[in-house]
Write a structure and sequence with these properties.
By secondary structure, the protein is an alpha/beta fold. The protein has 3 domains: 233 residues, 4-Layer Sandwich (Glutamine Phosphoribosylpyrophosphate, subunit 1, domain 1); 174 residues, Rossmann fold; 162 residues, Rossmann fold. The N and C termini lie close together (10 Å). It binds 5-amino-5-deoxy-1-O-phosphono-D-mannitol.
């Protein structure tokens, strides 16, 4: 969840690390730090609680450096717990969790080591320091052999100016190169504008920057022959925009959907045809917003193809004792492609012999590397922690996948298939709801709780609307099955209680109407989003919001847009930053 960077550059090394850290900040923003190594002068260190911008100031001198932006796991967000951590001749930054850090810490304390932080990471730099007998790389390898858990690290050694060593196990790490700088980094977009060629490391590999070149090594210390690829312009993220990233990313939804449609329609599905046609059982795994997309996929496949899909949040997948095996299909959905829970679910599925299809936004991600077949959406970089355009694009990929499944089974596409091309325009039309959503956010600015109600596919949209509201506006919200309300939750409704209801399925609109009438009778203020003005009785809602008209099964891809915008407005009106919600990080690379 943290972001790390290491850089060797004769000029502007500090500035380059600072720029990369600013782009990695979506991974965590509890604290930030940079250590520079200057030949003849040793280390210069700056680290602080809070945002990367706290590291601004006169650049620290040095030709090699490492930087870190933290999402706190072990130890509070304090200056002392901020990385880099030092010991003797070494400085280290770490992303991941060292699961055996307590026993290592006890062992090191018994040997007389004293710790300056509460982090698990500090044990690594102590182990490296104790293993050092003059060979930097060998010390890092020896220390890594003692670690259990996940890590991506970057290390400096004052005996070796101009060198940075990185290691990867379970947390992402890439090498990047340009004419003027060599890097290791947590992701590719962070090297925007400064690395023309990149090469991801695999688990168990080491990256050594020394003598002006980048080398990869395996666990045994043997050099690996790896290929660098050119960084595509799409991988390059912007760092500053007017307004927030979340607003900008919502505005990009129609374009992102159009790009993704183009991508998925030009993909050759032949490599997964067999799995789509004959899978004994279909599983969908994901976390958070991506899980809501997986749930929509499950409903659509069930309704269109008639196949049952078992949807499980990734963190539960391993413990659910599912009878998964050869002949089964697993669809793993993840914007980042680095979510640890999803990766673990996929590793288990692959081990059992299932065919894995990844739906991700990052072509070079670990998920894409693990999967048998990847569908890469073209949402573009998503910087705000709250997922918006990536959700809409995940749905596009999953609709397309469901349609392919239908095609491989029946030689015919579903009736809604051609309407996929209407999605970009419909997404744009959904922006017409924004003035009403803005007014609603102002009206409900001080609400302490909200309910989002829906049935069937609308329930998935309701759940996503509630998640966005909790995540960035810090208002407790629940996405709830409209029909379940009367079985307990109705007790929460009192005068003025905000209820957002979705009703996009005409055949069950009257059932949703019952739940709204029950809520209104108890004093709830009800806003109803629907594509048809006639579908519901006038009296069951206080406000109506008209959605664009599409085949019902495609409605989740556009019905969510007003809710994304509503959450963003609510957040801004309550005085929070939608791009950096408290306690969270964009990429959850710890279990
Ligand atoms: O990168 P992923 O799609 O795997 O991330 C999964 C969740 O962590 C993510 O969707 C999270 O729920 C969002 N921040 C919600 O807006």
């Amino acid at each position: 969840m943290c972001g790390i960077v290491g850089c060797v550059a004769k000029e502007n090394c500090y500035e380059r690390i600072y720029a990369a850290l600013s782009r990695l900040e979506y991974r965590g923003y509890d604290s930030a730090g940079i250590a520079m190594l200057q030949e003849g002068a040793g280390f210069h260190l700056r680290k602080k609680r809070g945002y990367v911008s706290n590291l601004k100031g006169r650049p620290l001198a040095g030709e090699a450096g490492i930087g870190h932006t933290r999402w706190a796991t072990h130890g509070k967000p304090t200056d002392a717990n901020a990385h880099p951590h030092g010991c003797g001749k070494f400085m280290l930054v770490h992303n991941g969790i060292i699961e055996n850090y307590l026993s290592l810490k006890e062992e090191l304390c018994a040997q007389g080591e004293q710790f300056a932080s509460e982090t698990d990471s500090e044990v690594i730099v102590k182990l490296i320091s104790r293993a050092y007998t003059g060979d930097f790389f060998s010390a890092v390898r020896t220390a890594c052999r003692r670690l259990r858990g996940s890590y991506a690290i970057a290390v400096l050694c004052s005996d070796h100016p101009g060198e940075v060593i990185g290691a990867r196990q379970g947390s992402p790490l890439v090498a990047g190169a340009s004419d003027t700088a060599l890097y290791i980094c947590s992701d590719i977009p962070a090297l925007c504008g400064d690395a023309d060629y990149i090469c991801p490391a695999s688990d168990g590999e080491f990256i050594c920057i020394r003598d002006g070149k980048i080398q990869f090594f395996d666990e045994a210390g043997s050099e690996l022959c790896k290929c660098f690829t050119r960084v595509l312009p799409e991988s390059r993220a912007e760092t500053s925009v007017s307004g927030t990233f979340m607003e900008k990313e919502i505005a990009q939804i129609p374009r992102a959907i159009a790009d993704t449609l183009q991508g998925v329609s030009s993909l050759d599905y032949a490599p997964c045809a067999r799995a789509l046609r004959a899978a004994k059982c279909v599983y969908a795994v994901a976390c958070g917003t991506a899980f809501h997309a997986a749930l929509v996929f499950g409903d659509v496949v069930q309704n269109t193809v008639g196949a049952h899909v078992v949807c499980t949040v990734s963190s539960e997948f391993r413990y659910a004792n599912l009878p998964i095996g050869v002949g089964d299909l697993v669809v793993a959905v993840s914007q980042s492609g680095e979510t640890a829970d999803t990766l673990e679910a996929v590793r288990l599925a692959a081990k059992r012999g299932a065919f894995v299809i990844a739906v991700t936004n990052i072509a070079h991600s670990t998920l894409a590397a693990l999967a048998d077949f990847s569908i890469v959406m073209r949402a573009g970089p998503e910087i705000a922690v709250a997922a918006t355009k990536s959700y809409n694009c995940q749905l596009v990929c999953l609709y397309y996948l469901a349609a392919q499944m239908q095609y491989f089974r029946t030689q015919a596409y579903p009736v809604w298939f051609l309407s996929l091309r209407d999605l970009p325009a419909a997404a744009e039309a959904a922006f017409d709801c924004f003035p009403q959503m803005s007014a609603l956010a102002a009206k409900w600015k001080d609400a302490r709780g909200m309910l989002f109600l829906g049935r069937s596919l609308d329930l998935r949209t309701a759940a996503e609307g509630a998640l966005k509201t909790k995540e960035i506006a810090y208002v407790f919200a629940e996405g709830y099955a409209a029909g379940e309300l009367k079985h307990g939750t109705l007790a929460l409704i009192e005068e003025g209680f905000p209820v957002v209801a979705l009703s996009t399925r005409r055949d069950i609109a009257s059932k949703t109407e019952n739940a709204l009438a029950e809520s209104k009778a108890r004093g709830a203020q009800v806003v109803l989003l629907s594509q048809s003005e006639e579908s519901l009785n006038e009296s069951c809602a206080d406000f109506r919001i008209r959605l664009p008209n599409l085949p019902e099964c495609l409605m989740p891809a556009v019905a969510v847009i007003p809710l994304q915008y509503f959450a963003c407005r609510l957040c801004l009106l309550r005085g929070y930053d939608p791009d950096k919600p408290r306690n969270l990080a964009k990429s959850v690379t710890v279990e």
